[in-house]
Amino acid sequence: MTTEKVEERREFECSLPRPCEFSTVDGILLQKESCDIWDRIWNFQAKPDDLIIASYPKAGTTWTQEIVDLIQNEGDVEKSRRAPIALRQPFLEWIRPTTSGIDQVKAMPSPRTMKTHLPVQLLPPSFWEKNCKIIYVARNVKDNLVSYYHFQRMNKSLPDPGSWDEYFEAFLAGKVLWGSWYDHVKGWWRKKDSHPILYLFYEEMIQDRKREIRKVMEFLGKNTKEEILDKIVYNTSFDMMKTNPMTNYTNDKKLNHAISPFMRKGIIGDWKNQFTVAQNKKFNEDYEKKMADTSLSFCMEP
Ligand code: A3P
């Protein structure tokens, strides 16, 4: 398809009404279509060599996915550009009009890598039974929230976020897709004590990408050859991924990058441009209460 045609199609798709039906599984707000076939998702049969990249939405999932794919392909950029990231590593619980994440995964040869945003208690039990490796990436809540807000503005597959003030309140109440950020990051953090989970932090990836990529390589049992590592570091910078059509989601018709690009800012501390002083105060008080029962801590300053 030509670029003009893709643009035309995107404009058309984006002008369609947004889906208004969302539903819940055990109190967690999810896409209605996923809830409708929840039994199939819950009973998904994992294989021991499956790898899952898990995260709360907008925590740096795509970044982690691209790093993993490059590691699996020994830093071969051409191989990693074989398809958009969403096809290389399907989104387990997401349903599209023509296919579903679980069907995409089932059609893949092993070893399979996939992504999920499910909170830990909703991950299909066979992943635990088969002792699959999992990489979880978490991001400080304030930047995560701001990124999520802009993503919902531009993603016509998700509900309209409303105004920033409305979204801020909905997020605090956990009334957003995939549920409460607080429960999500804490739940996965606890689980890593009893399961092979590599828990990454977006801010640490920003601070020292090379060190964090090395961690991922070690977790995946890959030899850390310096030149491969350097190649992966180079190809996973924000600027490289922003211009890479296989990672920047410009091929997704439901995303309107004119509203806000998928690869938006990629920094720590953007929340300061969005939160009012009053919102920050309210947020901090609430944060202290919700995070009092965990050893998890996040860097919120650049
Ligand atoms: P911002 O909206 O703050 O820019 P996800 O993949 O989970 O949807 O996360 C998307 C967020 O990760 C976006 O954050 C995006 O810019 C950021 N991101 C993606 N690749 C990145 C990279 N290579 N370096 C830094 N941030 C990156």
TrEMBL record:
The keyword Cytoplasm applies. Residues 48-294 form the Sulfotransferase domain. PANTHER family: SULFOTRANSFERASE SULT. Pfam families: Sulfotransfer_1. SUPFAM superfamilies: P-loop containing nucleoside triphosphate hydrolases. The gene is SULT1C4. This is Sulfotransferase. One of its GO terms (cellular component) is cytoplasm.
